[in-house]
Amino acid sequence: VQLVSAGRAARQQMLSDAFLYHVGTNAVTLTAPFELRGGSQALDFALHAPVDNNWLEVAVDVVNADTQQTVASFDQGVEYYHGYDDGYWSEGAQTKHRLVPAIPAGKYRLAIEASADPAIREMPFSVTVVRDVVVWSNFWIALGLLLLYPCYCWIRAYSFERARWLDSDYSPYSSSGGDD
Asked: Suppose 56 and one of 80, 116, 142, 146 were both cysteines; which one would form an S-S bond, judging by CB atoms 3.0 to 4.6 Å apart?
């Protein structure tokens, strides 16, 4: 079911917008409206910024354009650090993704407020929204739950066989005691 769902996912880009962060101006920026059709669906938010040994954080509110109600809200940071000590190292990335599940159909805008490392005076960044993406967490949770019973049965069978062979001189199970 998950593979069929993954194959049928539309992965349609709904919004791609570029912004410029300026130090000292923490004004909230509203994007152009975009419309989600169909039922409730997951959205993938991609934040990209050319950070280099610094960071940028964006607070995003998904606001219904008709009712002005916030349906989802999150903070997403992007950071990338690198350097040398005993060799080259790096951590982070210039692009980060955030999955927001179950956004109902409707017309939406994003309210975006950026903050950054105090050393940054201004930095461009972009936000991309893709609808109808695959949510793999449901698959992994279901697989884990399905594997609980077989694991339980295996542990019970192993325990029974070990107890059955416990007093035998020909036991295939190693004994913890060494009293010969």
From this structure: 116
